[in-house]
Predict the structure.
Amino acid sequence: MAFGLVCWRGVAVRWAPWGQQQDLFAGPTFDTAAPWGGKWRAQFWSGDTVFLQAHTGLYFSQIGRDISVMAPGKVASAGFRIHKKWGGVLSHLDEVWIEAPNGKVLEEANRMVLARFDREETGSLPWLAKQQNLILERERGSGVILEYDHVYFKTAAGNYLDVEALDLTARFPVRSEWQRMTIRNNMSETSTTTTTVTTTTTTTTTMTTTTITVSTTSTTSTTSSTTTRTSTTSSTTTSTTTITSSTTTSTTTTTITSTSTTVTTTSTIHGTLISGFRVRLQSHTGNFVNMQGRYALALTSEPEPLQQMTIKKRGDEGDYVYSGDTVYFIVPLGEYLQAVVLGVGSAAFAHPESQGFVIETASGKTGVEIKGGDPVYLRALAIGKYLEVASGTTMVTATASEKRGAAVFRLVSDDASA
């Protein structure tokens, strides 16, 4: 007995290897209000190459055995393969492992995420499989994993993979923005420009007619003599010349053939700060801003861990930082830097305007790339004044009504490309 399966709208159907649960997953998913704009969303299968995008807008990437989150797009170093033991379509609560571009598998070790061993090495190292295995969770709580889904990865220790700045770790047993990843497939994204065919035809017609009219000459002569002889001579000459019409037709055809060109351009502005980079605020005194409790003080010129902050742009994670942008600074404890009347400190919960700072240059021009070490001014949105460190003090305040020497800061970042 033979039977056939008709797939509507070109939906691909694959048969799982024999011995597995023979579930059929077919049919497009549409949601016009979603980020994918109502397009068909592909399913993910064990062995597929995926790109994992963090809340910062950047993608997982592999550098040596370290896994960071700094790829600006779907580049080669950001392509990871995802597997599950019995193969097939990936679904909510599947146990999976993730293979980095170098063939090593991600593992959680003491809350760090590394890529040190092949999957085959789990045969001789039983503890390794436990560290490499992750529980894949779909934010919607059920179903197969689709393009653009928000997903979470839970380790054997009960913590979820999380992203802070450019680091990938596994520190907390909760799901939040830092733990949420967007899963993308490896379909190419290109831009195509087409020149339309243009045809021009020119026709020239010339007609010339020349006519010479008939010319007739008649001569009559009569002579009389005494011999009464009459002689008459008549001569008639007729000459007609006609040059008839002459027609010349000239046709010229010019055709410009259509050309389709696909161009992929990647540009890097070296040394420019990117939303999500770690920075240290250096005041005009040369001292870096430290967080002492909840207050910001410019105490020492030596680098220290408590000086590290993460610079972010609202809604533009992964984008370059330009003059005129509103930026936010996340201090080591995860709170936001904010300016109040009494000084500059940090707060976990506050109105967004009290946390934002407009980054400006001395010239006042907007749209200028901010590079690591450039002198800048930070105007607090909540107060409308610039941050400064007054002479003879270490306290950071928002009291400068204009751009002056005490209000100059430099954003020093080890993440900025040289």
